[in-house]
Amino acid sequence: MQKNIILCGVGGQGTVLASKLIAAASLAKGYEVMSAETIGMAQKGGSVFSHLRIGEGLKSPMIRQGTADLILAFEPAEAVRMLPYLKPDGTLAVNSHPVMPVTAALKGTDYTGAEMIAYLKSTVKHLLVIDGVAAVKEIGNPKTLNVVMLGAAVQSGALDFLTRDDLLAAIRKRVKPQYIAVNETALAYASTHLTKEGSL
To answer: Which of 43, 46, 167, 184 has the fewest Cβ atoms nearer than 10 Å?
Structure first.
């Protein structure tokens, strides 16, 4: 078994933590894990992404274009940017709410993310669109988007080698005690909100 996963977003969305939770849960199940991250712009709202490879016989942490089984995109434009990495029958899970880049904000650009989502719907065979704003509002903590995305990936079958309990065990080991309960709620969110059409 080999799985290639890319997580992408902008600084402050919890992309790196989500990657580490998948890696920790995978290691706990006895899988080999290799990862590579770009986090230099994390504090400035810039692009952040992680390559995560899980399975046997891994030789490099970098994922070739056209070979990702799953892309977890925390921001629509970052989803489009990383789309060339997705294999034809791979799954893309994307947060529908955009994060306005500083450059676009300074220019007064009207970026809503809607065009990006429309493009993804017309291009990606297996697409999961997640209303991150509605999710974190209901949960009551804006910092839980990353765990909502993980829960959706498990619930949809895109993370078919892990269970919600596997991720929950990783959360309990890696998240500060005062934030465990809210992350448990975030992880379970998709179990009651994921539609048959693949939206959340």
So the answer is: 43
Residue 167: CATH number of its domain: 3.40.920.10
Q: Which amino acid makes up residue 29?
A: K
Name the one residue in this structure whose structure tokens are 């209901």.
138
38 within domain boundaries: yes
Given a contact cutoff of 8 angstroms between Cβ atoms, the answer to whether 22 and 28 are in contact is no
Q: 172: how many CB neighbours lie within 10 A of its CB?
A: 12
Instruction: Print the domain residue range for 108.
Output: 2-193
Of residues 164, 166, 161, 156, the one with CA closest to residue 130: 156
d(CA 88, CA 82): 13
Residues in the chain: 200
- What average pLDDT does the segment 113-126 reach? 93
On whether residue 41 sits in a domain, the answer given is: yes
Look up the pTM and report it.
Answer: 0.90
Tell me the Ramachandran region of residue 173: left when phi exceeds 0, alpha when psi lies from -120 to 50, beta otherwise: alpha
- Percent residues over pLDDT 90 in the chain: 70
65 in a domain, yes or no? yes
